[in-house]
Specification:
Strand content of chain A: under 5%
Chains: A mainly alpha (206), B alpha+beta (182), C mainly alpha (196)
Structural class of chain C: mainly alpha
Strand content of chain C: under 5%
Low-confidence stretches of chain C: none
Number of strands of chain C: 2
Helix content of chain C: 55-70%
Radius of gyration of chain C: 18 Å
Shape of chain C: globular
Oligomer: heterotrimer
Largest sheet of chain A: none
Structural class of chain A: mainly alpha
Chain lengths: 206, 182, 196
Amino acid sequence: MSLLGQIAFIAIGAILVNNFVLQRFLGLCPYMGVSRRTESALGMGMAVMFVMTMASAVTWFVYEFLLVPFDLIFLRTVAYILVIASLVQLVEMIIQKMSPSLHSALGIYLPLITTNCAVLGVAILNADRFCSSEGIPGESLLFSVIQGFSAGIGFTLAMLLMSGTRERLDRAPVPRSFQGLPIAFIAAALMSMAFLGFTGLVPEGH
Amino acid sequence: MNELINYALRLGLLCGLSGGLLSWVHFKTAPIQAAREAEERERAKQEVYPLPHGGRFEPGPLSDMECWSAFDEAEQLVGWVFEAQGNGYSSTLRIMVGMDRNGTLAGAKVLSQKETPGLGARIEEVASDWFTGRTLDALFLSHVGGNIDTITGATVTSEAALKAVRETGEKIMDSVKERMGS
Amino acid sequence: MNAGEFTKGIVRENPVFVLALGLCPALAVTNSVQNAAGMGLAASFVLLCSNLFISLIKGFIPSRIRIPCYIVVIASFVVLVELYLGAYQPALDKSLGLFVPLIVVNCVILGRAEAFASRKGIASSIWDALGMGLGFTLALVATAVVREVLGNGTLWNRAILSNMRPALIMILPPGALLSLGLLMAAFNWIRERGTS
């Protein structure tokens, strides 16, 4: 299969077929916490997308040049989460310098990206799927970054879909017990069902 | 500046402690894990190809895939065990298959799959029935003329499993024929 | 009072149903009760150890770098769990898969470290961890019971619904979201009736 074909399959796989939020269940805490309004959903989505892409790249280097050569793969979890925490800190400092207004808009959400399962999740998925095979050296880095970026897109997509729905749900006559998160989960269940329709679109096993 | 060094030292100490502890535990558990994985492999091989008494497996005949030749006590080749891989509906199917010298399958066991639960995942239950006792050329679903009933609602997985075993088995038979020059 | 520290994690401040933390594993590994119990135990172990350790060394950690320090501590215990499961519980390790390392970003654990273990004494931290861990495990098991019984007709891999064909959707992703939503609503309803 051509390189472009493989890239397309990875991207479509991460955005639609195995949507990180609605199918893999990664990134749910921020998903439920931030998706109430569209502006914050979009802002959070962008920030997460950026962090996920960068994290995919940096963790690839850590894996290939630090963990594998020194036989330290069992320390993968610790190494990755420290990388992610540092990256988020860095991103926060950069945003603060470059655009204080954006920084105050995103507020507490930025440091929360560290605990976003989707970021650590995609880094581990990258390593499991791309790093063990032989092949052209730069290829696994490219695929890892593509999957990270696409997963971010999928996350943002799910967030936007949810925020539109929740803005309406907040104005609807929902029974007391269901208000807030429960009805949001049920809405997400329906969305997840819709996304199930994408199964089989892309062959997973390569 | 002193503050920074203070922070770095404390964090460094914590990391060092962590690294030390984890390395020690890894050192202790890695051989256990490796031994268990090897044992599982052996068990799967025995399950799909019951070796005659005193027999053994040897890696071969093809080097680009997981396969073993089975020899009996008298060092005669009696069959093979191989791992067939194929793209299922939503995951790679890996099936361990035992085959004897004339191409009749002795057993099969699904090693790994991530198909839809309740549908394609049922390949694990039916694999043994589907493959045991059949020859490679009989591995076809009923709707294309064979006599294996597809899993309801999981045609793709069913076809993928049969195709993987059929083609891998044929590869082995072909390579053996080539070697014998016939 | 210590009994209060323990029980609050089970109902009043249940991490999943009330605080909405640890949602990712609550959805991903609740397709069977066995997986849910395994995850609950693993996470509780990490929570207990990290709460205890952080409470012990809280004097040693400067406030500026407390988050990275907590992360190192929590991640270390998670790797311990990973190594243990890999060697002694391979089947569970395979079922839980990606979500074992993800325990490190389970908001319950980091949350308790920040909000509790870093400020309170060792005894309180232990009770807090035990209560939260139990509450987390119960929430996961409850969700799993719904999903496994309705979606697979089994409970702990033993068949219990023999005449009915199970509703497959329940063990697929939408079923997880649906179960959790309904259970949360039920929990809210019970809590409201309790206080009125």
